[in-house]
């Protein structure tokens, strides 16, 4: 019993340290977003100061971040939906049927997920310029599908494999078609998985920087590119970087809370069932 | 009946007169009429004049009905963004702020257009715009093969910013004239961590190459001779580079990550006693909201063993080939580089490129940098204007930064640079 | 509306008529879309890698198809080998530290910290946009007013003569520290999930045999956990090899070339120098490296799966 209490104490201390180390840089970002220029450059760094919302205001009045948030939202949602529609079907097929060479197909799909973005971004840039698609939201949706689609296939496959096939069989005995068995039985049962997958796809797209930095300029510019764009002036605009950074993280934070049940499973491509 | 006839005749005549006077007396409002409602995108480096132009923009927009969106990017991200647009031919940007050393590269790649067609168009060109007022070197910087590709926008001359108050407080006479005096002053003023002898822009970046070029020239060195034989790694080159390395002993620890932005902040806060910096920043030294050194800064040539040294890094406003609003863009460029706009922005970020402004006595009094710029502007040294220069900057930036970071000796770094620059020159057919 | 309904009915009929057609019908969209958006661009990139293609040069000075010249030039370039080395060090050290730290913390927390809110908070660093992570740490590492620099100096762990990102010897460790901060939570959570899913029977048997905790760990926990361990290592190694955002935000490869990872090296060649041909060639080399590493790791993984 004594031994157990010691473990609890040690574990509490460890989780305490982990949380502090994890949260402090983020907290510092939030604090910085509320500082004036003078407090931002203070030596030693200040923890107590008069907060101001100036940075938030100027991010939207002087820097025009509203359209960027809009672009980020549209691109992330569209790519998520596209990947879900196409990928769920593929995942179901891989999970339920014996397919000639299915191992190779699965591995190939996974391997596209492993592509370094820097490899794809160069041909995408040249092709986009030749097709006149540079700096369009449509292009960004397609580009983000390159990593979202294989992701959906892998996770949803693992969720479908978890469902007992008997349910679909029973439904088909009752007169359901093959499609209905998928559409009306399997799909609703894997709704939580679908939800987690959607949220993770959204987060990946929402946070993506490299593709957006190269492939957008003015019309389709996303928030991460805009934030990097603040590293420009005579002195870097730390206050505004922090303000927009904070706003950028907030939806992700909320979504993570919403999807926490399956998030580990999602992040390990369905391999670890957390 | 007859009376009214006469009256209408007079009225009609008057109208024609009035119309003529407008047609002959050029005005921005009139010239811009066909382009009202256009939106221009102006991509510029984050320089002080880019801030001043943005401040003055409402005037232009009101007079012309042309809306202008200013997009600022730091070097090298300005080129990254601009080239992506030009190569793609997307036509996002209409006005392009380019460095004089890029002119050839962009002209040869077909990315910017000559301004002559617009300058010769009486409906667009302001007849009162005195082009001879631009400093000759700055005007030359916009030219390629005898054609002008832009109007000089930003006087960017690198020389020594030295804080007179700090020098006086420590009993050091300024400004230093020779490199030896200079090094001595750094040593005497260095009192870390409160005060450092000098700032440096020693990041692996164009900035380190610019600053080092000043030192190379001050030590009577050259990149190459008239036959493109590399000389940067000769005795003078090594001396200059070793001098540069020694400066780092009297500079703040972070200088291997500093560009001109960081140098400026340090100068403004009085954390460094002096630094080589671009003249366009003079206004920010005198801005009480940002600067703790109002009234203290003085300006001098880079200390040299020979003639006074300064380094020209100016830029112009030009029009990308892919722009869909070239006429409106020309009107904007003409306005942004006009005497009136340059003059009214003095102290607020404007960095004039016109001689007449630097010769206004009251301004020379108030802004000591004006005297220094005027003295340097026509003869200031400049970097090679060949399209291959950017590839050499990459080489030099890495090698020089390695010297300051301590992974290479001056000699090793210069020999490697010489070798690579030689092969770039050979490959490009210069020798 | 009517039309849509018909299509649906036809689809319905058609799919139930043949299971074989059904499965391919479901899978084909994925295959076609992926082929179009990943395979085709890669073939296109190979074409670029074999050409003299530079956007900053006039088109008449370009030589077009030049075979393997780009590859030859790269293999002769010491900067490339440096990037390879930096990427290797970054990957091995970052993933290594993350793994051992993650495993140790997971073992300590196992069965005790179950609160889901706490667990979500642990994940905070890795759900932040990497570019924001990079910029936030740039600020923390500032040589004059950075909080981390200030703390290090107050603890006399770092002198005024240097700053985390300013010297060649500390820049890469500082960069690795950011990656460790960002990704250790992921390893903690995954390994924790893996530990909690382990069967209890072997442990009860060990209790009866009075085996030492270390023996239990080595003989029971590690073998049972191996599939999970391999999965996280595969994922992390792949991510570390292609790291870009935090490097671009924090150091852009400097000082000197101390942090010049492969992705940064490619990016500089492509978008600072506009040498698209050479950049494509390097990215192919990176692609091969990733392929080889992933094939090895995945084979290892499937063997472990079969064994268990």
Report on the structure:
The complex is a heterotrimer of chains A (274), B (431) and C (308). Chain A is mainly alpha-helical. Chain A contains 14 helices and no strands. Helix content of chain A is 75%, strand content 0%. Chain A has one domain: Orthogonal Bundle (MetI-like fold), CATH 1.10.3720. The mean pLDDT of chain A is 87. Chain B has 431 residues and is α+β, with helices and mostly antiparallel strands. Chain B is 46% helix and 13% strand. In chain B, the strands form 3 sheets. In chain B, strands 1, 2, 3, 4, 7 and 12 form a 6-stranded mixed beta sheet that branches. In chain B, strands 8, 9, 10, 11 and 13 form a 5-stranded mixed beta sheet that branches. In chain B, strand 1, helix 3 and strand 2 form a beta-alpha-beta unit. The longest helix of chain B is centred in the N-terminal third of the chain and has 23 residues. Chain B is globular, with a radius of gyration of 24 Å. About 2% of the residues of chain B have low confidence. Chain C has a domain of 187 residues: MetI-like fold. Helix content of chain C is 75%, strand content 1%. A two-stranded antiparallel sheet of chain C has the order 1-2. In chain C, helix 2 packs across helix 14 and helix 3 packs across helix 14. Chain C is globular and about 80 Å long. The N terminus of chain C is likely disordered. At the A-C interface, helix 1, helix 4, helix 5, helix 6 and helix 7 of A face helix 1, helix 2, helix 4, helix 5 and helix 6 of C.
């Amino acid at each position: 019993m004594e031994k157990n209490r010691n473990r609890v104490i040690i574990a509490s201390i460890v989780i305490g340290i982990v949380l502090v180390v994890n949260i402090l840089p983020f907290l510092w970002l939030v604090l910085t977003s509320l500082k004036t220029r003078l407090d931002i450059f203070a030596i030693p760094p200040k923890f107590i100061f008069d907060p101001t919302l100036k940075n938030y205001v100027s991010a939207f009045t002087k820097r025009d971040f509203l359209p960027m948030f809009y672009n980020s939202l549209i691109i992330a949602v569209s790519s998520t939906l596209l990947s879900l529609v196409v990928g769920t079907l593929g995942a179901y097929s891989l999970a339920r049927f014996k397919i000639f060479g299915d191992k190779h197909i699965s591995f190939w799909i996974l391997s596209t997920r492993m592509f370094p973005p820097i490899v794809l971004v160069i041909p995408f840039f040249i092709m986009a310029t030749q097709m006149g698609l540079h700096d369009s939201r449509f292009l960004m949706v397609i580009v983000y599908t390159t990593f979202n689609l294989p992701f959906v296939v892998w996770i949803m496959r693992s969720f479908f494999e978890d469902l007992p096939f008997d349910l679909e069989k029973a439904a088909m005995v009752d007169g359901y078609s093959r499609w209905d068995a998928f559409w009306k039985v399997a799909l609703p049962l894997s709704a939580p998985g679908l939800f987690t997958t959607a949220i993770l796809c959204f987060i990946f797209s929402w946070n993506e920087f490299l593709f957006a930095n190269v492939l957008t300029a003015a019309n389709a510019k996303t928030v991460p590119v805009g934030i990097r764009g603040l590293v420009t002036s005579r002195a870097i605009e730390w206050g505004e970087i922090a303000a927009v950074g904070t706003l950028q993280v907030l939806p992700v934070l909320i979504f993570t809370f919403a999807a926490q049940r399956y998030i580990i499973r999602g992040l390990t491509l369905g391999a670890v069932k957390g | 009946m007859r009376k009214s006839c006469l009256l209408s005749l007079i009225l009609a005549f008057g109208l024609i007169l009035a119309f003529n006077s407008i047609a002959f007396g050029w005005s921005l409002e009139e010239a811009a009429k066909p382009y009202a409602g256009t939106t221009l995108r102006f991509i510029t480096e984050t320089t002080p004049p880019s801030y001043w132009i943005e401040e003055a923009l409402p005037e232009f927009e009101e007079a012309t009905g042309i809306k202008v969106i200013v997009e600022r990017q730091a070097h090298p991200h300005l080129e990254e963004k601009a080239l992506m647009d030009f190569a793609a031919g997307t036509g996002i940007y209409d006005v392009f702020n380019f460095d004089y050393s890029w002119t050839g590269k962009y002209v040869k790649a077909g990315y910017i257009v000559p301004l002559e067609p617009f300058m010769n168009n009486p409906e667009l060109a302001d007849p009162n715009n005195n082009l001879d007022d631009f400093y000759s070197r700055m005007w030359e910087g916009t030219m390629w093969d005898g054609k002008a590709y832009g109007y000089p926008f930003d006087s960017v001359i690198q020389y020594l910013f030295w804080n007179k108050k700090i020098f006086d407080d420590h009993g050091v006479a300024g400004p230093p004239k020779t490199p030896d005096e200079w090094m001595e002053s750094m040593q005497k003023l260095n009192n870390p961590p409160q005060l450092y002898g000098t700032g440096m822009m020693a990041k692996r970046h164009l900035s380190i190459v610019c600053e080092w070029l000043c030192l190379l020239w001050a030590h009577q060195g050259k990149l190459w001779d008239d036959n493109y034989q590399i000389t940067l790694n000769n005795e003078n080159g090594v001396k200059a580079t070793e001098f540069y390395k020694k400066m780092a002993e009297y500079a703040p620890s972070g200088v291997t990550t500093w560009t001109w932005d960081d140098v400026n902040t340090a100068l403004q806060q009085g954390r460094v006693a002096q630094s080589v910096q671009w003249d366009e920043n003079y206004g920010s030294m005198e801005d009480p909201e940002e600067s703790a050194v109002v009234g203290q800064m003085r300006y001098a040539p880079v200390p040299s063993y020979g003639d006074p040294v300064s380094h020209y890094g100016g830029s112009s406003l030009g029009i990308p080939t892919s722009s869909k609003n070239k006429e409106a863009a020309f009107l904007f460029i003409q306005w942004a580089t006009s005497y009136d706009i340059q003059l009214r922005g003095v102290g607020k970020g404007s960095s004039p490129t016109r001689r007449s402004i630097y010769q206004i006595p009251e301004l020379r009094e108030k802004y000591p940098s004006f005297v220094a710029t005027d003295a340097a502007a026509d003869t200031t040294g400049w970097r090679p204007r060949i399209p291959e220069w950017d590839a050499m900057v990459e080489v030099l930036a890495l090698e020089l930064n390695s010297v300051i970071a301590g992974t290479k000796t001056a000699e090793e770094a210069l020999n490697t640079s010489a070798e690579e620059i030689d092969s770039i020159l050979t490959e490009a057919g210069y020798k | 509306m009517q039309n849509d309904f018909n299509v649906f009915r036809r689809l319905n009929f058609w799919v139930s008529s043949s299971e074989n057609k059904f499965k391919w019908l479901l899978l084909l969209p994925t295959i076609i879309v992926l082929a179009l958006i990943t395979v085709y661009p890669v073939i296109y990139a190979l074409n670029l890698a074999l050409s003299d293609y530079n956007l900053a040069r006039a088109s008449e000075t370009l030589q077009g198809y030049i075979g393997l010249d780009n590859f030859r030039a790269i293999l002769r370039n010491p900067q490339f080998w440096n990037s390879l080395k930096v990427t290797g060090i970054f990957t091995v050290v970052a993933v290594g530290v993350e793994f051992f730290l993650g495993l140790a913390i997971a073992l300590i927390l196992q069965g005790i910290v179950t609160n889901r809110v706490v667990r979500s908070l642990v994940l905070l660093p890795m759900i932040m946009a990497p570019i924001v992570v990079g910029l936030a740490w740039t600020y923390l590492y500032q040589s004059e007013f950075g909080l981390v620099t200030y703390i290090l100096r107050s603890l006399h762990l770092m002198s005024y003569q240097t700053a985390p990102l300013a010297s060649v010897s500390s820049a890469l460790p500082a960069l690795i520290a950011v990656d460790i901060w960002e990704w250790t939570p992921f390893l903690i959570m995954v390994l924790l999930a893996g530990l909690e899913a382990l069967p209890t029977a072997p442990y009860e048997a060990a209790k009866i045999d009075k085996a030492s905790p270390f023996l239990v760990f080595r003989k029971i926990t590690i073998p049972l956990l191996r599939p999970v361990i391999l999965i996280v290592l595969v994922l992390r190694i792949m991510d570390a090899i292609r790291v870009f955002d935090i490097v671009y935000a924090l150091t852009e490869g400097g000082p000197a070339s101390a942090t010049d990872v492969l992705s940064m090296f490619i990016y500089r060649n492509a978008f600072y120098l506009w040498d698209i041909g050479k950049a494509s060639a390097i990215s192919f080399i990176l692609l091969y490296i990733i392929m080889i590493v992933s094939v090895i790791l995945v084979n290892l993984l499937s063997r472990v799966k079969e064994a268990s």
